[in-house]
Every structure is written in structure tokens, then in C-alpha cells.
Prior knowledge:
The structure is a single chain. By secondary structure, this protein is mostly helical. The chain has three domains: about 5-80; about 110-230, hpI Integrase, Chain A; about 245-310, no CATH class. It is about 55% helix and about 5% strand. The chain has 13 helices and three strands; from the N terminus they run αααααααβββαααααα. A three-stranded antiparallel sheet has the order 1-2-3. α3 runs antiparallel to α4 (about 65-80). The longest helix has 19 residues, at about 290-310. The termini are far apart.
Amino acid sequence: MSALGQALVDYLQLRRSLGHELAEARWLLPGFVAYLDAQDSRTVTVEAALAWAQHSPTGTVTTVGPRRMTAARGFARYLAGIDASTEVPPLGLMPRRQRWRRPFLYSPADIDAVRGQARCSIVSPLRATTYDTLIGLLAASGLRIGEAIKLDRSDVDWADGVLLIRESKFGKSRLVPLHASSMQALTRYARRRDELQPRPQEPSFFVSLTRKRLSYPVVSQTFRQLIDTAGIGAGAPSAPRLHDLRHTFAVRTLLGWYRTGADVQAKIPSLSTYLGHREPASTYWYLSAAPELLALAAARQDTAWSAARS
Length: 310
């Protein structure tokens, strides 16, 4: 491990001990340190931080740059107390632009296709069944990818069909009940996982070939490869993302309620709790995420207004 790598370990441990969740810093900063090591940089410079934040393997512009810069700035502030030659990137160098991005909504066929791609194209039987099950769980439950990766074996209540999501975003924990078919899929995975990897090094439910917990960068890259190979979303206005599985779950749930005539306004707080949103207002955002959903909501409102006038 390089000196910067050790400094990153110390930095994350310090921040964690102070109560910071470090969701993004934990998965972004290892890439920054690897970039600095590849450039033979002994510490952070403004030039290196900006180059890393703007770097895109595909050449496309993404929203990750400002998030990278925020993470790099925090790490640089820590390093500056150790090494006076450290340059701390100034605020506003890459301002974060708040812009609405329409999510890519996966069809059931899309989800079947990407899971099938995992089963047929991933050589390792353990990785193949892991990604097949992980993607299926995300689509069926609306979990954040970080929540799924963080699951331990003890977090699965097999008797009641419930997952314990521990200290997720905003430091909240919650219980997530699953459909019987999802629990059956997790049961099959657990048996296959234990056959293929009987001596894991960590208690994680989903395991990697190294016998450890899955890492977000690897999962994200693998998912992107599966999506591209399966040809999902080619030509779509918004490229499919891993997090869009969560958006799809929320939108499909709302669509189902509207189509069956359910009282959506009364049900949204329960969906908000299920998804782990801080407040129902975050869940209302999904009403504008799909034209069909917006049309159903508008039609419901028109009906209510007509009834009130008559």
C-alpha cells in the first residue's frame, strides 16, 4: 500500500469515528488515490484533482465530476495537516449543478435480459449467480445498491421474509419485507453461494471471488458491461444506470396503485418508508418520472375536480 493509500485509510477511519457515513467518499476516493499513484504524485494538487474529477473513460459528460471534487477536497484538507505541500482545491472549482435527469425505466423484458446476460456471459459460476440475484433483488425491492452490498447474512430474516437495512442513507435503519418469490431467489443464491464459496472472509450476504464483500465500483462497471452487451437502452435519451432499478421499482409501484384505483396519496408515505426516504416529498418526485404516471395522476385529479364541482 502506498503512503497515500495508508493516508486514505486513516482519513476514512477518522471521519467514520466522528459519525460521518462517507457513502460517496468510501467508493470515490480509492480511485483518486489510484490516479495519484499512477501519476507518481506524492500528495494532492489542484491540477491532479481537477484532471481526475473531469476524467471520463467513455468521453461522455456526467454529473460525477462535482462529487469527485467534493470528495477530493475533503481528503486534501486532511492531508494538508500532514503535508504542507498539499494543495486544497478551492470551492466553486467544479460547482455542482442541480439538474433533473429523467431516469431510465426498465421494462420486465429489460430486467430479464440483463439477468440472462449475467448468467450466460460471466464465466465464474459464483459471479454469475451473484449478479443475477443481486440485480433481481434490486429490481424487486427498490433497494439502493449500497444497501444491498452492505447486507450481512444475519440481516435476512428467513422466517418472516424481511431484510434489515442497517444505518443506510441519513443514518436510518428499516425493515424491508420481500415477496415470497424474492425470498425463494435469495434462498437459492445462499445455497449456491455456500457451495461455491464455503469459507468467506466477511459476513456479507453477497460475496466476491476474493471471499469478501462486493465493492460498488466493480458492481457498477460489471452492470454497465452487462447492459451494453445486452443492448438495453441503446439510443435512449438517458443511458440506463444501476440506480435506475430503484426508480423503476418506485414508478411501477405507483403505476400499479393508480391502475387499481388505490388511494395513492394515502399510500405514498408507506412507499416513502419502504424506500428509506427521509420524507414523503422525496417520493413525490417519482410522479414526474414517467409520462404514463403523470397522465394517470392528472386524470385522477381531473376526476376529483369534476366530482367537487358537480
